[in-house]
Amino acid sequence: MPSPAANENAYVPILSRIVVEDLMHDVSKPLLPDLIESFVFHASSRLQRIRDAIARGDFPTIKLEAETLTGTADTFGASRLSDITYRMGQAADERDLMRIESLLNAVCPTLQATAKELRQVFAAPEKGNGASNPQWT
């Protein structure tokens, strides 16, 4: 059964078309696949730090890592991931461990879906993007 946080996020698109298109124009095409993989790797590392911080009840670290993920997600146009991690930072401010854990459960599949969509978009031919139905605005 999906977490309540996942249901709250269903309306937020995985990617922002505007940000992704800007990224495609601003970054050298050969660099994009490596940037995506770096984004996924570092996001996964930050999620592990959040898990560790949850175990310690370390709300400042949870907030810092969530805010960093939010900013990075925004840079890549990862709207849904940004929304979840933003709410995770708010939950850290409120010291709401149950909400943080619920949001963390939504982040992992969202990061996987985001990586898949980014890989499809950036691997697609530029004309019309050719991506197979990315979930973006």
Structural notes for this entry:
By secondary structure, this protein is an all-alpha fold. It has a domain at 59-123. It is built from six helices and no strands. α5 (79-93) runs antiparallel to α6 (97-123). The radius of gyration is 15 Å and the shape is elongated. The two termini are 26 Å apart. The model is unreliable at 127-132 (pLDDT under 50).
Can you tell me the residue ranges where pLDDT is under 50 for at least 5 consecutive residues?
127-132
Main beta-sheet strand count, sense and barrel state: none
Helix share, percent: over 70%
Approximate shape: elongated
Category from helices, strands and their pairing: mainly alpha
Strand content: under 5%
Computed CA radius of gyration, to the nearest angstrom: 15 Å
Query: Using DSSP, what is the number of strands?
Result: 0
Number of alpha- plus pi-helical segments:
6
User: From N to C, what is the helix and strand string?
Assistant: HHHHHH
Give the rounded overall mean pLDDT.
Answer: 87
Distance between the termini: 26 Å
